[in-house]
Structures are given as structure tokens and as C-alpha cells.
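Form 7-S
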Amino acid sequence: MKRNLLLAAGLVVAIIGIRLLIIAPGWFKQRRENRQFIAVNNLTPERLLARCGQPLADETKNLYPMIARDIRYSSAANSTVVFKFSKTAEESSDWVFMSMQDASGGAEYETPMAKIAALSCLDSAK
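Output:
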């Protein structure tokens, strides 16, 4: 009787363990994607400079009633990546991340994964 109970308990534990092994990779992938999404979508010039250090160039243009800011970094693929931010000319306005694109006019990095692949310092895990 005890042997059957131990066998049944072992079988239940094995089934739960197998389910966890099947579910875990998807959970880790979703967690990584969420972290990358948050890191990229909460990007401000200050956070970008804090994470990635000194840029190649940092230009601010007053285009009243808005202010535009372009920050350039060298990417992992030895190209230049431009981050575009804007805000209204009001004193209390916050910067808004507009886009990240290749300086040569090529690719525009659409997904958080593509942005982090081009410039790994964006990843909040680092």
C-alpha cells in the first residue's frame, strides 16, 4: 500500500517536473522580451547617456514650438545609430523617444530586440 502511494506521488512529481521543463523556456523568453520592451520604451536622453556613456555626437535643435535632439552612437555593426528625441518648448515638458535609425539612412530599428542587438548597452540587465 505504501509502495503504491510512493509510486503515485513519484509519478505526480515527475509529471509536474516535465510540465515545468516545457513551460520554463517560454516564460524566460517572455520575461526577457518584457524587460527589453520596458528598457527601450522608457528611454530618455538621460537614461541613454547613463547606460551607454559618451555619444559620438549630441545635437539639440530648437524648432519652436518643439525641441529635437539627436544622439549618435557607434553600433556593434560598426555603423552609426541615431536616437531621435523631441519635446515641446515648454519648461516642464519631458523628452519623448521618437526613433532609432541607422545614420546612413538605412535600417530603422523597430523592435526592442533589434534595438538592443544594434546597441547592447540599452539592455536593462547590464
